[in-house]
Amino acid sequence: MAATPSRPTEITVHGQSRVLEIAFDDGARFRIPFELMRVYSPSAEVQGHGPGQEVLQTGKREVTLLGLEPVGHYAVQPAFSDGHGSGIFTWEYLYFLGREQAQLWEDYERRLRESGLDRDAPMPPRPGHGCSH
Q1: Tell me: the pLDDT tens digits for 5-54?
Q2: Coil, strand, or helix at residue 19?
Q3: d(C-alpha 50, C-alpha 23), whole Å
Q4: N or C: the chain end with fewer CB closer than 10 Å?
Q5: 57: closest CA among 128, 123, 106?
Q6: Do 55 and 84 contact (CB within 8 A), yes or no?
Q7: d(CA 44, CA 24)
Q8: In this structure, which topology does domain 8-115 adopt according to CATH?
Q9: Residues ≥6 apart with Cβ < 8 Å to 118
Q10: For the chain, what are the domain ranges?
Q11: C-alpha–C-alpha distance, residues 6 and 69, integer Å
């Protein structure tokens, strides 16, 4: 990784194909599926508050982006159609998602198998949360 993180030069939301296309100043260009972004959201709701507290996300294949808000000069905050909107995606994290997406998909599918879950299974309600997002 470069000493200074790459910065995006172009960000395009493709609603119909459900991908975020992002080009960086080092020439890299990625098409990151919304589902991958949602499953790997950097939010505490998904990542937990420490190692081993990650919440395996399911039922996100059809998720769309309702909005994409800039956060300073370092990140964006997507609003997903399932109500999730607390993840802040830094440029560095989006670059990681784009560069490593094949491995991330593999890891996700392995975690689903190990949990006996299907990618399209609905998310179970979380204790203390009134919604099923």
Answers
A1: 799 999 999 999 999 999 999 999 999 999 999 999 999 889 988 888 88
A2: strand
A3: 31
A4: N
A5: 123
A6: no
A7: 27
A8: NE0471 N-terminal domain-like (3.30.2020)
A9: 58, 112
A10: 8-115
A11: 19
Structure tokens at 123: 């998310």
Say which residue the tokens 């560095």 belong to: 92
- Bridge partners (DSSP) listed for residue 19: 14, 33
pLDDT tens digits, 82-108: 999 999 999 999 999 999 999 999 999
Q: Is the C-alpha dihedral spanning 95, 97, 102, 104 positive or negative?
A: positive
Q: Which residue has the tokens 């992002």?
A: 22
The pTM of this model reads 0.89
Rounded CA gap, 59 and 123, in Å?
6
Cα(99)–Cα(132) distance, integer angstroms: 31
Which ranges of 4-120 would DSSP assign to H, the alpha helix? 34-39, 44-47, 91-99, 101-115
What is the number of helices (H) and of strands (E) in the chain?
Answer: 4, 6
Count of residues in the chain: 133
Say what angle helices 101-115 and 91-99 make with each other, to 10 degrees: 80
Instruction: Kindly state the tokens that stand for 64.
Output: 């769309």
